[in-house]
Amino acid sequence: LPSMQTSGCKPCPSFKLREVASMYFTMIAVFLVILVVALQGSAPRESDFPYKVPLDPQGLLELSWNVSYPEQTVHFQLLVRDLKFGLLFGMSDRGEFENADLAVLWSDGHNSYFGDAWSDTKGQLHMDSQQDYQLLGARRATEGLYLLFRRAFSTCDPKDYLIEDGTVHLIYGILEKPVHSLQAINISAIHRGLQRVQLLKPNITIPELPSDMKTMELTAPNIVIPSEETTYWCYMAELPAGFPKHHIIMYEPVITAGNEALVHHMEVFQCAAEFDSFPLYNGPCDSKMKPERLNYCRHVLAAWAMGAQAFYYPEEAGLAFGGPGSSRYLRLEVHYHNPLMFKGRRDSSGIRLYYTSTLRRHDAGIMELGLVYTPVMAIPPGEDAFILTGYCTDKCTQLALPAAGIRIFASQLHTHLAGRKVVTVLSRDGRERQVVNADRHYSPHFQEIRMLKEVVAVFPGDELITTCTYNTEDRSRATVGGFGILEEMCVNYVHYYPQTQLELCKSAVDPGYLHRYFNLVNRFNDEEVCTCPQVSVPQQFFSVPWNTFNRDVLKSLYSFAPISMHCNKSSAVRFPGEWEKQPLPSITERLREPVPRCPPTPGPRPAAPVPLDLGKLRRD
Amino acid sequence: LPSMQTSGCKPCPSFKLREVASMYFTMIAVFLVILVVALQGSAPRESDFPYKVPLDPQGLLELSWNVSYPEQTVHFQLLVRDLKFGLLFGMSDRGEFENADLAVLWSDGHNSYFGDAWSDTKGQLHMDSQQDYQLLGARRATEGLYLLFRRAFSTCDPKDYLIEDGTVHLIYGILEKPVHSLQAINISAIHRGLQRVQLLKPNITIPELPSDMKTMELTAPNIVIPSEETTYWCYMAELPAGFPKHHIIMYEPVITAGNEALVHHMEVFQCAAEFDSFPLYNGPCDSKMKPERLNYCRHVLAAWAMGAQAFYYPEEAGLAFGGPGSSRYLRLEVHYHNPLMFKGRRDSSGIRLYYTSTLRRHDAGIMELGLVYTPVMAIPPGEDAFILTGYCTDKCTQLALPAAGIRIFASQLHTHLAGRKVVTVLSRDGRERQVVNADRHYSPHFQEIRMLKEVVAVFPGDELITTCTYNTEDRSRATVGGFGILEEMCVNYVHYYPQTQLELCKSAVDPGYLHRYFNLVNRFNDEEVCTCPQVSVPQQFFSVPWNTFNRDVLKSLYSFAPISMHCNKSSAVRFPGEWEKQPLPSITERLREPVPRCPPTPGPRPAAPVPLDLGKLRRD
């Protein structure tokens, strides 16, 4: 039996934070023989697993994966840097450890097992009656143990998670003591956490890049990451004077080695052209020292989040920057997630832009779909899934889009803290035709620009309907629309070409009909609500007694009352036309929910964990 | 190969009605060899298939079946009296031939096949990818061909019908021409029809019957069945003078031989004790000649519908009849269904009562649950599944039921023509505990008294919640509650013991809250509805403009507004107490929809029809 030593905790500054008990198991000799399935040939190449993300803040667990759409399967390669007595890896609706779908490797110190398990509403683990995490192999390397396994997107096992487009909440747990059975694992007592990723990356062919392509790095200038859980770092950069118009055709992250688990997401914003200059600030975005003017740097040029790869513009389009009429000032924002409060860690992460002066055929544009930022759109408190819908109507697209239409190739969904799902659907002649972007496990903490799997063509007369689902179970008063962090938004920033004048295509309920709602609530509930005109809409919402009737009628109002449309060239300039009291788009035919395809060959039934000979795991 | 002649159309008076084309195929020689599965041993005994029903009005197709709850399977034996080129047998939601689940036997004249098929929304047939109607055998007899096959209640194939408790709509079709493939069957061009049955009969042990049991037959006096599609026949009978109190402990149908397909359902009613005598009428119930007083004969003593067997009271109880305080007059009502308009058919069908003078421990009682007959409960027009709910509250059961509770052992669901589903659930301490009776394929044309699979114990403080689902897609104005055939009811007559004073435990929305609804609709819709107090509730409902908002708000009202309770000793006498503006029972925990169990060994996948050697079928 080949022997294996622990590989010495290379990135291990969290040492002090470990519990004393776990110190016991630090040095283990692992005798490793794989009985089940040996990896065919040698170690898989890195290109076999194009996507990679650290699971835990220390980087002990590193997940790589690939996606096969023909097979409707994900292959996972999990690197375990410091194996103790096993680990849990899995998926759940929003990262919770209850009702989760888990692959578990566990050892009693002598024998090791791998199995597909699930946790019930109390977090108790059970072996799954259908084994759908299929172990393909395990491999020892100096850096740790590699586990290779596969999972079909859909297993048709009701205990399993359905892998869908959009965000997937991955969960992990580390077993630091021997366990004698799966059932003996106390899931609330282990070192555990969650990581959000887009598992089902689109399968996009990379467009050809021009020979005159240049690069520009916007990176933090060797800063010290604050020893705080959450930091948004702001760094201002300046384009050279007279920098002419270019097209950004690609960008990618630049991450300082060793900080992969800390850099959560990054964005590059262009500042407003109306100001000649901006102060060159370098510091936390929420610092009192941050100059006020940086709030005018909000036009997104590039955005990256953990697990994302390089972003390529379609070959017909590029994002214009530089040249007259655009600001020379750029703001880099880096979100550091440092839950273990590492101190003194230096970082120079940022984004590398690839741009060309050979302009492509089309400028790319960004359009806002969804709801206007107004308090008339509100969510009652204590709702687990309240839906608000924003419309981009046929009348607006008729007026603002070219006859040849536009092509949407990417999308960034946005809500504040109560957002749980966001979906935009394209409707034509009253029939839903295509999902533009859907995230049924949306998290406000994970807002990526995502390439669409398929470019969506939108023509004059089409309707774009954006639906956001909110959870306000933890709130005691109504959540109204607005800019505040405890107010809500429902936005889909779609990236498209060719650029048009249309920047905003959003709606809100007609305020007159909302006034009728308050009157109705007032009369029906014996005058408890003050509807005096001098009272603000939020105040009126806050005074509604939220019984089931008033909740239901608000829903009915939002799905009946006419809307006020914002069909705007910029946030302040509307297209000419009548945009008040517009009828709600009527949908005569809805898209069917896709019926999940079941795998042709389900795993063994009933439950049978796979024994793994990892040798004797012992305390040192 | 054994040869088989057609058995000559014994009950074949419909001969004239056949299409000329079909005359071609009347005489066929069938050479019958069963390749697939020979019946084990000899022909199955009659007791193997305790339930029997004719499918078509001529009785060409006769279905027998049994139910195995341990195996969750139904075994069918289908007798085909005059086989031509095959037949269809199946199930669908409400008897339609679209989206149906079908077993098909078809022949091109040379080869015959049996397979599990389904029809799409256009009625086109397709072979099912999973074969769940499993052919077990076929057998030639003088009376025709017997096909024996089985079907699991639930197959987990989305194309298959889920066999549930309550009404099942069976459909059949007869292939009168050779067909070369399943796909070639034009389902709209064949002789076809539907039959409603309760497939999943409860598995009840028959109580011991006393030695002094007597019988009394209430049968039509050799009447001539009118040559009309639908006849309700009324026949009055009289108990002997001084007939003392007895207990009915069982009853069963008496059907004149040959009329099995015509007698649809029968009921025996006792007349009101307040009248000393009733005219002894014998004739159609809707005749102008029928004396008015017969409307006072409405107390159900016995009810039977096609496919039902004998009805046994539980051994602790019997239904009282005779004795002082009860009328000596009984009314038999027979519903004849004669779509082929047979003429001159004589009939003496009716019900045989088994009764004893050795009274059992308890009198059985009948209680009405559901909605009060009042127009305040209404259904908007154009609804495909509008739900109304009637409550029997904790306050009423607290007052009216004995501490030891009552036992419900049977139930008869009742609505008028728009009813589609009826469900009664027992709730205790706000938690739904048990389904009392549920029919998710309820038809107003098939109202049986059904024994419950399990006796339901109801204690003081329990709540009984009855939910009816209506379809008003064919109506242009609101359907209000009431006695009229185009008005609606939502009732569950539950049969229970020991008898209590509680005869009615029903509810309706508080009229004051309904008035607020009309006011609200009025204001919200710019004064279109007349809410002047002199206008009747139906008139107010008829004037509501039925936009989505007004529909939604009516639903919200019904699930929010307090109720007026009828907790009554008889239809006019309430129990003492405050019954107006009562709070709606609140349900904190709902019963889970049962997850259908899939069969352990699904049929062959993919589709493979079973070839049957029925010899050469030829035109004569």
TrEMBL record, chains A, B:
Top-level taxon of the source organism: Eukaryota
Reaction catalyzed: dopamine + 2 L-ascorbate + O2 = (R)-noradrenaline + 2 monodehydro-L-ascorbate radical + H2O
Record-annotated DOMON domain positions: 59-175
Bias kind Pro residues: ranges: 596-609
GO CC annotation, single: chromaffin granule membrane
Keyword Ion transport: no
The entry's keywords: Catecholamine biosynthesis, Copper, Cytoplasmic vesicle, Disulfide bond, Glycoprotein, Membrane, Metal-binding, Monooxygenase, Oxidoreductase, Signal-anchor, Transmembrane, Transmembrane helix, Vitamin C
Bilayer-spanning residue ranges: 21-39
Pathway note: Catecholamine biosynthesis; (R)-noradrenaline biosynthesis; (R)-noradrenaline from dopamine: step 1/1
Any one Gene Ontology molecular-function term assigned to this protein's record: dopamine beta-monooxygenase activity
The family this protein is said to belong to: Belongs to the copper type II ascorbate-dependent monooxygenase family.
Protein name (record): Dopamine beta-hydroxylase
Organism annotation: Pampusana beccarii
